[in-house]
From TrEMBL:
This is Autophagy protein ATG17-like domain-containing protein. Keywords: Autophagy, Coiled coil. Residues 7-308 form the Autophagy protein ATG17-like domain. Residues 11-38 form a coiled coil. GO terms for cellular component: Atg1/ULK1 kinase complex; phagophore assembly site membrane. GO terms for biological process: autophagosome assembly; autophagy of mitochondrion; glycophagy; piecemeal microautophagy of the nucleus; reticulophagy; ribophagy. Signal peptide: none annotated. Pfam families: ATG17_like. One of its GO terms (molecular function) is molecular adaptor activity. It comes from the Eukaryota.
Amino acid sequence: MALVNNMDVSVMRLKKRAARFQDHVDKVRQQREKATELLQGFDTVIEQLKQIRIPGPLLAYSRGQSDRASHSDLSLYAWISASDPQHSLQDLVEQVKEQITNFGQSDAMSTMHSIEKVVELSKDVNSREIKGINKRLTDLDHHLRRAEERDKAINAHTSKIVETPSHIDQSALEELISEHRYLMSQIYAELRELRVICNRFYASKVEVLGILRTRLNSWIVRVYDRLFHAHNEVLVFEEKFTGLKQRLNLVRQIKEAPMMYATAVSEVVRRRTFHKEFVAWHSLHVDKCTALSDEESQIRAQFSAKMEKHFLRVLFHGLFDALPMFYVKSLPKFDESLGPIDIDHLRELRAASFFKIYVFLP
């Protein structure tokens, strides 16, 4: 029963996983369409990546190195390819195409069929219920109880023999011997009966074990084999699906790389300009706010000094509030790690009309 219960739990888990599997199958169709769209014009993207120059100082800065002069310029294509020297970006495209091809509808249908077959086989009523097993188990219990009764009878006869008084006269000796002989004959009879019962119990037990072994070798073993096979199929599909998603995400990022790089350079230049103008504006703002705050605070302090000494203060107790701080005197540091990019690099990107990267720039 423990094996059957464990099998039922495993089948239930597989059914829940089958629902997620079907969801993955539907998403594979969507990923296939997305892959077709992503791979279109990828050769053009590669050419763009080769034409985009990453300044050496930016490379050194990104690696946390202070000696920026020791790094030479590098194309964006070479920088991306350096993360996996064993494979080119073209290899990535081929891998995606191969994975899309390997996700055949027949594989998904075969896996779903395996899952359905496991569920169907596990519900086989004729296999789950062993006909006559309850009667055989009852017979085993009956034999066991009879053996216990014989054991109690033997112990009772033995106790009577052991309880013989230590001092007995000659006249009662023959009667005692006769009684002991009778008790021994009863013990031998009980032992013979116990032997018969044990033989029957052993035979019944062997029969039950044989039935269970036959059932295990047929139904339960087949269910567990199919369960293991279906689980592996789902696992392989999920791993392939995860790998496909990761590669498609990488393809998407690579395809967006020219736009993202140009946009990031533009944003660095914009933020550096904004930082300079904002700091100047804030400095002027602080000066004006400080003057206003000092003037207002002085007026309030002078009035409070007069009012607090007069009995009319009880009527105007709300006139003693101080002016709160309403501006930031010093700004926290921000936009100080933008990297060594200047307007000249942005102009260079805008001038790269051979692949029209200027359409990405504001």
